[in-house]
Specification:
The protein is of the alpha/beta class. The chain folds into three domains: about 1-90 and about 245-275, ATPase, nucleotide binding domain (Nucleotidyltransferase, domain 5); about 95-240, Nucleotidyltransferase, domain 5 (2-Layer Sandwich), CATH 3.30.420; about 280-325. Helix content is about 35%, strand content about 25%.
Length: about 325
């Protein structure tokens, strides 16, 4: 049975999904990257192999996320796509009439606008941690609760307090102040949910036409307190589709299937054995021009496998490089 593998490597989590030809999820993994994207992909592949029937054949692989280039080299990807495209494709499969995608990850967030299935606008926030999954994890820990308890507890709030959510430093100090004033924990938590939604919409959503159907993706969408806060702020229902936490990987797998169906070539997938190969990454700064591009290269032992990162093709990997390194 032909199946398709999608891998989404983020700064906080790494997601792997296997789809059949009808885009049904056969297996999925959601694991912490822990600052080791290469090892996260390899360990994920090793675990995924144990979850698939022996008759499955990986007929196409797609990678996405901030670590998509590295993951693509390691696994032998047929398609390497940015996360905007991957999330739009995945969400459109589950919610065909989606017009707005809200996505909040571990350390970044994005908004994607679609019209008639085509991405027309988007915005990303990769520099501010306010309201991201990592920040919510930190605040849950500080308040002595698990992140799984965050949403249900926030929903119990009757009189949420106002939290200054434009900055993690201000938000945390404001939460501490509210605790010292004696406010209930659930009111502080839901106040933080409202601050997150307000901050997101005032930054990423500023000047954008947010139209229904609105879909919420990413691990933060597990938090029902955040979902309700967005519904209140937008005055419209929010759809949290199945597999929302791995939607980027699903989109990558769908794109891989479409690419292989159209070109008819054999997949470049290196096999699950890549989980045992000792890859090594390194980088250097190109001094050829004022751009000072950081060039990343991947080797197996001393053999060059791939190289990327330049704005020009000066350091682009070529077959003659491979032969020289060999």
């Amino acid at each position: 049975m032909d199946v398709y593998l999608g891998i989404d490597v983020g700064s906080v989590t790494t997601k792997l999904v296997v789809l059949d030809t009808n885009y049904r999820v056969l297996a999925s993994l959601y694991r912490r990257t822990l600052g080791r994207p290469l090892e996260a992909v390899q360990e994920g592949l090793a675990e995924l192999k144990t979850r698939l029937p022996a008759a499955c054949r990986i007929a196409g692989v797609g990678t996405t996320g901030s670590g998509r280039q590295l993951a693509g080299v390691v696994v032998g990807a047929d398609v390497v796509k940015n996360e905007i495209t991957a999330h739009a494709v995945g969400a459109s499969h589950f919610v065909p009439d989606v017009q707005t995608i809200l996505e909040i990850g571990g350390q970044d967030s994005k908004i994607i606008l679609l019209r008639q299935g085509v991405v027309t606008d988007f915005a990303m926030n990769t520099v501010c941690a306010a309201g991201t999954g990592a920040f919510l994890d930190q605040q849950a820990f500080r308040l002595g609760i698990s992140i799984q308890e965050f949403g249900p507890l926030a929903l119990r709030s009757k009189t949420p307090v106002h939290i200054a959510g434009r900055c993690t430093v201000f938000a945390e100090s404001d939460m501490i102040h509210k605790q010292q004033m004696g406010h209930r924990r659930e009111d502080i938590l839901y106040g933080l949910c409202q601050a997150l939604a307000r901050n997101y919409l005032n930054n990423l959503g500023l000047g954008k036409s947010i139209q229904p159907t609105v879909v919420f993706l990413g691990g933060v969408a597990f938090n029902q307190g955040i979902v309700r806060a967005f519904e209140e702020a937008l005055k419209m229902p929010i759809v949290v589709p199945p597999h929302h936490e791995v939607m980027g990987a699903i989109g990558a797998a769908i794109l891989a299937h479409e690419a292989m169906r159209h070109n008819g070539n054999l997949s470049r997938f290196r096999g699950f054995e890549v989980s045992q190969i000792p890859y090594r990454t390194s980088s250097f700064e190109c001094q050829a021009c004022p751009n000072l591009c950081e060039i990343v290269q991947v080797r197996v032992e001393e053999k060059l496998i791939d190289r990327w990162g330049g704005r020009c093709d000066r350091w682009e990997f070529r077959e003659e490089d491979h032969q020289q390194e060999a």
